[in-house]
């Protein structure tokens, strides 16, 4: 003020106005720059400095058995990583003294935790890189030990992984999912709509110390965990069946074996066992052909287990009764020059239909089957579930092969009656017997019970329609005949279970090699118990059995599994006797 | 002109006294504002301290929760392994257990015994070793210890009262 003499107010105001104007222009300009010109960039820069965005991983649902035992679940696994460029000795306090631990000593500790050799770990830790992976997918126990080393250049990264606590139990059904989630098989793939969750996303602000600022989180997308899939499988019985099958496949030097247990009245699939099969925890340890289920996908010519369908068809069509009499020679020459023979040489027999099943006579059953028109026989085959996949719609499921039934040649027309020239899946034949055990009504397989979403909503899976294959009286007559197979049959007797009435039928089917049948067989036995009020069907099959070429190799498997089933489900022994039916005349 | 100005100044003096009162008022306003601002700042500092402490507490609790979750995970895996069919069968096999395939039922309505009781035969159905792989198993039952515990438990259960045991699960006294 001293620069201007007093009394020059106007001049003072003018200078002040200019100064103010300069400031105003400067600030308005800067304001425009901040708020308009560079606003988005500044906002973004600010946001990136304080805001952290992360994916909220949705947990995949579990696969449960009928008693909610876990067959598959999601857990945390960890990758162990190292920054080689920063690897250096560390100092540790031991009993109050400072001790330097060398890199070699630390490598020894790390190697011991990871189950590797010291040289292996040292090699991975050396170099100029900023990142190297020491181990993938280690469990929480290993992670804790690694973290407790407290090394600045060694850390673990968490990831959601999948574990199968029961290993290969039902591995053929459950399938697997690889650590990166890229490859899925079995129900892990098929039932993804129930099991898979939807990842979410959230962003939050953090302070300069890196700690999340409370209440700053903004969930951009809510994570939705996957649902729990409940199956009808009985894990304990499935395990038992797999144990029995593994032994049998090894002893019989078969390619593979299958075992199925069905709850007759509900159609529930309690067991769908295979050997060998896959441990979903380690799919790489199994051969590629064993990494997928065979019960629904592999077909085989059923052989004599098919005779049950032919016999039931003839009875239901009114062309035969269990007592219908037939003269059954060892072999019959066809007009086209080929021979149809029984498996074992025998004199000409006078058998009833029950006797034909008991002795598994090919020449006898084809005479019974020939009484029924081919179109009628084919329609019954379909009612028993042959020729089309089950309603479960399993991945790669086969419907079996009936071929062009209208144009079957004479040979196929006859051989189909005893299970040659057509092909079925193990599940199809098992449910054909379920129909007979269930008073003639074939139920659709029930494997999927429900899907329970993370919000608690439970969706029951619908079951396919039931089909009446034969009348109740036909079914009863057929069960009575099958009981004679187990009571009196040469092979059937070996399937008998002390104290219980058991009905069943064996099958020994030659396997085609090229255009002709080879020396290897698919041997099987399908039975039901207790025969007076059937509750369970057990179907077993060994494919390409090399030690035993008849179904006598399959009956011990059937017997063990059926015995265990009856015991596990507290089925009391039978108190009645089988119906008297003539088997010879 | 200067006399007039002096006169005018003299005339307008009384209102100037009021300015003196307004200065006191302004001082009170200024003091109030300053105190208010200081109070707000103090409150702000206090709030920041509280919320910051909350953030650290939440952070610590989360770490604790993660550690407990990890422990539960480790123990859960062990329980899964020990209770798996694979482990139980191996233990049963090591102990030489035999499966009795002849169940007998007692019908309560008429006390009828259904089935024929028969002793389990050693050569009949000795439990075989596990053949079903399970790479998820992290631990096995130590059979040598189990043998000792099992015998003690069984013997103890018939000779002492229920609950007398400590440290091991009592075996069923049924045969």
Descriptive overview:
- The complex is a heterodimer of chains A (585) and B (175).
- Chain A has helices at residues 9-37, 39-50, 103-114, 118-125, 140-148, 171-174, 187-190, 192-195, 235-252, 307-316, 353-359, 362-369, 374-383, 410-415, 426-437, 472-488, 555-568, and strands at 51-56, 63-64, 70-82, 90-94, 97-101, 132-138, 154-163, 200-205, 218-221, 228-231, 256-263, 268-275, 325-328, 331-333, 339-341, 349-352, 441-442, 448-452, 458-460, 467-468, 503-513, 516-529, 536-545.
- Chain A is of the alpha+beta class and 585 residues long.
- Chain A has two domains: 75-163, Penicillin-binding protein 2a (Domain 2), CATH 3.90.1310; 235-568, DD-peptidase/beta-lactamase superfamily (Beta-lactamase, 3-Layer(aba) Sandwich), CATH 3.40.710.
- Chain A is elongated, with a radius of gyration of 37 Å.
- Chain B has 175 residues and is mainly alpha-helical.
- Chain B folds into three domains: 14-83; 85-141, no CATH class; 142-175, no CATH class.
- Chain B has a two-stranded antiparallel ribbon.
- The radius of gyration of chain B is 45 Å and the shape is rod-shaped.
- The model of chain B is unreliable at 149-175 (pLDDT under 50).
- Chain B: The chain crosses the membrane at residues 25-50.
């Amino acid at each position: 003020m001293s620069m201007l003499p007093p009394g020059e107010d106007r001049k003072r105001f003018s200078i002040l106005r200019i100064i103010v104007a300069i400031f105003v222009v400067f600030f308005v300009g800067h304001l425009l720059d901040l708020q308009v010109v560079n606003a988005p960039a500044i906002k973004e820069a600010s946001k990136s400095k304080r805001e952290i965005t992360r994916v909220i991983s949705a947990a995949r649902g579990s696969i449960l058995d009928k008693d909610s035992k876990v067959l598959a679940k999601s857990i945390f696994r960890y990758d162990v990583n190292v920054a080689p460029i920063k690897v250096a000795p560390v100092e540790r306090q031991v009993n109050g003294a400072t001790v330097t631990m060398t890199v070699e000593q630390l490598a020894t500790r790390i190697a011991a935790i990871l189950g590797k050799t010291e040289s292996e770990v040292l090699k991975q830790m050396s170099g100029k890189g900023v990142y190297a992976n020491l181990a993938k997918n280690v469990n929480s126990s290993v992670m804790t030990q690694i973290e407790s080393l407290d090394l600045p250049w060694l850390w673990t990264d968490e990831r959601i992984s999948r574990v199968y606590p029961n290993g290969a139990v039902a591995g053929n059904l459950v399938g697997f999912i690889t650590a990166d989630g890229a490859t899925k098989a079995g129900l892990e793939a098929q039932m993804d709509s129930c099991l898979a969750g939807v990842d979410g996303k959230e962003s939050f602000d953090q302070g300069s110390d890196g700690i999340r600022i409370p209440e700053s989180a903004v969930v951009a997308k809510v994570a939705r965990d996957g649902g729990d899939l409940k199956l009808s499988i009985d894990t304990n019985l499935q395990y038992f069946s797999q144990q029995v099958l593994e032994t049998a496949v090894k002893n019989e030097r078969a390619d593979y074996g299958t075992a199925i247990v069905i709850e007759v009245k509900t159609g529930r699939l309690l067991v769908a066992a295979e050997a060998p099969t896959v441990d979903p925890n380690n799919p790489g340890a199994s051969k590629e052909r064993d990494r997928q289920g065979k019960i629904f996908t592999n077909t085989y010519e059923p052989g004599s287990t098919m005779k049950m369908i032919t016999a039931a068809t003839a009875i239901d069509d009114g062309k035969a009764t269990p007592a219908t009499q037939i003269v059954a020679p060892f072999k019959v020459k066809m007009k086209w020059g080929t021979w149809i023979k029984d498996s074992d040489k025998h004199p000409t027999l006078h058998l009833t239909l029950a006797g034909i099943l008991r002795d598994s006579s090919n020449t006898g059953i084809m005479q019974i089957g020939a009484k029924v028109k081919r179109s009628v026989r084919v329609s019954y085959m379909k009612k028993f579930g042959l020729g089309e996949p089950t309603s479960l719609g399993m991945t790669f499921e086969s419907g079996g092969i009936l071929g062009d039934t209208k144009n079957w040649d004479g040979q196929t027309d006859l051989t189909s009656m005893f299970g040659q020239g057509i092909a079925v899946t193990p599940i199809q034949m098992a449910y054909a017997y379920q129909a007979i055990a269930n008073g003639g009504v074939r139920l659709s397989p029930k494997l999927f019970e429900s899907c329970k979403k993370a919000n608690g909503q439970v969706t029951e899976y619908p079951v396919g329609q039931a089909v009446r294959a034969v009348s109740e009286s036909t079914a009863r007559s057929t069960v009575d005949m099958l009981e004679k197979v187990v009571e009196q049959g040469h092979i059937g007797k070996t399937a008998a279970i002390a104290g219980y009435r058991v009905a069943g039928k064996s099958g020994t089917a030659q396997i085609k090699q090229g255009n002709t049948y080879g020396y290897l067989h698919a041997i099987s036995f399908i039975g039901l118990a207790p025969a007076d009020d059937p509750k369970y069907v057990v179907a077993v099959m060994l494919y390409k059995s090399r030690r035993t070429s008849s179904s006598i190799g399959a009956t011990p498997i059937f017997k063990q599994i059926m015995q265990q089933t009856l015991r596990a489900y507290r089925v009391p022994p039978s108190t009645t006797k089988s119906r008297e039916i003539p088997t010879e005349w | 002109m200067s006399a007039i100005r002096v006169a005018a100044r003299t005339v307008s003096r009384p209102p100037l006294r009021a300015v003196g009162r307004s200065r006191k008022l302004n001082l009170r306003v200024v003091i109030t504002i300053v105190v208010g601002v200081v109070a707000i700042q103090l409150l702000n500092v206090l709030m920041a301290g509280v919320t910051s402490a909350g953030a650290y507490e939440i952070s610590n609790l989360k770490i604790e929760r993660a550690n407990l979750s990890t422990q539960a995970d480790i123990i859960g895996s062990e329980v899964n392994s020990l209770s798996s069919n694979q482990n139980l069968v191996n233990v049963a096999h090591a102990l030489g257990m035999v499966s009795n395939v002849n169940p007998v039922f007692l019908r309560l309505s008429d006390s009828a015994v259904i089935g024929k009781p028969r002793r389990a035969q050693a050569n009949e159905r000795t439990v075989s070793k596990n053949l079903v792989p399970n790479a998820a198993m992290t631990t096995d039952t130590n059979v040598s210890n189990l043998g000792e515990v099992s015998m003690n438990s069984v013997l103890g259960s018939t000779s002492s009262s229920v609950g007398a045991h400590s440290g091991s699960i009592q075996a069923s006294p049924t045969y």
